[in-house]
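Troubleshooting log. The previous structure file for this entry was overwritten by mistake, so regenerating from the original sequence record. Sequence copied from the archived sheet and checked twice against the printout by T.R.
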Amino acid sequence: MAIPKKSAKKETSAPVIDLMQAKVKILEAELHSEPYEVTNTAGITFTIDPNLNCKMEVVDDLDDGEYDGVKFYDSFKLKQDEDGDWTIRDGTKLGALAKARYGNDFFETEQVFDEADLGGFVFMAKVEPKTNFSTGKVTGSMLNWETIMRVPDPRKKKKKSKASEIAPGVDVEDLNMSLEDEQLMEEGLG
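Regenerated output below.
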């Protein structure tokens, strides 16, 4: 009689990605601004702190393309302030994502964080294996919060380099101001 065989039980079927830097796109974003209950596959119900859950895709692994198109899930936790309100805090994973999306001055502005603004947003980050804190087993992939940033705009770099070729060591803003001052002087307004 043949005995059926089974391979070892996998903790997850999520992809395990390890990239020093990659372009990542948010495909879906769901914000939970209050604690919520979840029931796992074993039927156990528990409460999760507020977070932003995202389905992501590696757009460019900045290497040989092995991970291009690979999708994974990650979450960004809200933090509780001294008044007990759930907020986006600077210096956290969600804070880094907000700065990448809205600009480094996000926390100094009146800009509102809106999950609808995240669909299709592409940014740079290190993608690394995620481990279960209890078991130590690798359970998938996650972003390293300290590496989340905007994709650099090569046009800005070109403008600065062209200006520095014209006047090496001179700031582009100073050069523009000097030209404006010169025009005002010629018109007799300065």
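Confidence is low (pLDDT under 50) at residues 175-179. Archived copy saved in two places this time.
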